[in-house]
């Protein structure tokens, strides 16, 4: 995968003559980490325990943490020179989106450095639990070229590994994930995804959104479907105060989702634009319920209709969203704005 923006490559910690640099990896595991001192060891252990019939590399992008994350990453790189390629990023390269620091530069540099045919993702505060995860996902992709990615279940845990909830993969997506489903923003637990490398270039709009995962899936959905593999044990997604998305209010989440959809309209194939407009319509209506004041609510509600198109799916979404808003108003169902 290559970005259209020419980002300068950083030097690898311990140089580029390590054992890992001399292999031809089938999979590149991308780990981005920032201030994950309490979690990064567990993340790397879950990756290094993988039992595979093929070589793989672990690309760690340490994003200039203010805690001891960088020291821990260095120790792992020194201990596993046959697996880990560590890049020490500089805070001056960080990109702001709506005033918030992001790991966009770190992620794209990791993707650019990836040499494998496939890329797996695991952020430094998450971790895998199944040692056969990579083997099963890659084996499927090798024999099914019509799929661009595979994924599996995840569980949400807190800072102390206490179970909070299941990952919430839609049942429909478990049965069959079409390309259009991925483009439409169906929720995928990113820490479980393995996708084909080199399918596309990353456009500049990627650097202008906060939730880059949804943007990434939209791009991938142009090249094939997504396969859910039930036999893999759930990975653990950690929800904590330091997470960028977790720290947002429901209103801020909808605002960021809308921003992402607008940017996606610039890059999605014309035949799929109605899907993105439907998502914009849905999110804009939901944002009404999070908006304070009668006049702002009315203004936000009617602004949603700029994305409306006369299609049966839009009518269905209209009824679904209005039902959810009414349930919220009458406290029938908790509504939090979770997901993408």
What does this entry look like structurally?
This protein is α/β, with parallel strands linked by helices and 340 residues long. The chain folds into two domains: 2-238, Spore Coat Polysaccharide Biosynthesis Protein SpsA, Chain A, CATH 3.90.550; 250-329, no CATH class. Helices cover 36% and strands 16% of the residues. The chain contains eleven helices and 14 strands. The strands form four sheets. Strands 4-3-2-7-11-8-13 form a seven-stranded mixed sheet, with helices on both faces. The chain has a three-stranded mixed sheet with strand order 10-9-14, with no helix packed on it. Strands 1-12 form a two-stranded parallel ribbon. Strand 3 (56-62), helix 2 (69-79) and strand 4 form a beta-alpha-beta unit. Helix 8 packs antiparallel against helix 9 (273-290), helix 9 runs antiparallel to helix 10 and helix 9 (273-290) packs parallel to helix 11. It starts with a strand and ends in an 11-residue tail after the last helix.
What is the residue-averaged pLDDT? 88
The CATH topology annotation of the largest domain reads as: Spore Coat Polysaccharide Biosynthesis Protein SpsA, Chain A
**CATH homologous superfamily title of the largest domain:** Spore Coat Polysaccharide Biosynthesis Protein SpsA, Chain A
Broad structural category: alpha/beta
Alpha carbon gap, first and last residue: 23 Å
Strand content: 15-25%
Low-confidence stretches: 332-340
What is the chains' assembly state? single chain
Instruction: Note the total helix count.
Output: 11
Order of helices and strands: EEHEHEEEHEHEEEHHEEHEEHHHH
Level-2 CATH architecture of the largest domain: Alpha-Beta Complex
Strand order of the largest sheet: 4-3-2-7-11-8-13
Largest sheet: 7 strands, mixed
* The CATH C-level class name of the largest domain: Alpha Beta
Question: What's the total count of β strands?
Answer: 14
Overall structural domain count: 2
- Shape summary: globular
Percent in helix: 25-40%
Radius of gyration, in angstroms, nearest whole number: 20 Å
């Amino acid at each position: 995968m290559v970005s259209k923006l020419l980002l300068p490559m950083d030097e690898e910690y311990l140089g580029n003559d390590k054992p890992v640099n001399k292999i031809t990896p089938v999979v590149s595991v991308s780990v981005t980490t920032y201030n994950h001192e309490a979690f990064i060891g567990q993340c790397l252990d879950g990756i290094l325990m993988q039992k595979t019939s093929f070589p793989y590399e672990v690309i760690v992008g340490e994003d200039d943490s203010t805690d001891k994350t960088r020291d821990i990453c260095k120790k792992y790189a020194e201990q596993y020179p046959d697996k880990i390629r560590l890049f020490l990023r500089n805070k001056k390269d960080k990109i702001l989106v709506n005033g918030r620091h992001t790991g966009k530069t770190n992620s794209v540099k990791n993707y650019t450095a990836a040499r494998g045919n496939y890329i797996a993702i695991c952020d430094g505060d998450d971790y895998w639990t199944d040692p056969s995860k990579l083997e099963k996902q890659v084996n499927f992709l090798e024999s099914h070229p019509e799929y661009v990615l595979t994924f599996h279940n995840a569980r949400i845990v807190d800072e102390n590994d206490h179970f909070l909830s299941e990952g919430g993969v839609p049942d429909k997506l478990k049965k069959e994930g079409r390309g259009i489903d991925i483009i439409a923003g169906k929720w995928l637990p990113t820490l479980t995804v393995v996708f084909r490398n080199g399918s596309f270039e990353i456009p500049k709009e990627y650097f202008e959104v906060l939730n880059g995962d949804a943007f990434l899936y939209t791009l991938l959905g142009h090249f094939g479907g997504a396969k859910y593999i039930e036999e893999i044990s759930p990975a653990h997604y950690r929800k904590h105060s330091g997470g960028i998305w977790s720290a947002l209010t429901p209103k801020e989440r909808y605002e960021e989702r809308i921003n992402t959809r607008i940017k996606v309209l610039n890059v999605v194939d014309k035949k799929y634009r109605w899907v993105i407009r439907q998502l914009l319509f849905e999110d804009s209506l939901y944002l009404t319920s999070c908006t304070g004041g009668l006049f702002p609510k009315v203004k936000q509600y009617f602004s949603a209709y700029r994305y409306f198109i006369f299609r049966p799916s839009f009518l269905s979404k209209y009824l679904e969203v209005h039902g959810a808003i009414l349930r919220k108003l009458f406290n029938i169902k908790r509504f939090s704005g979770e997901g993408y």
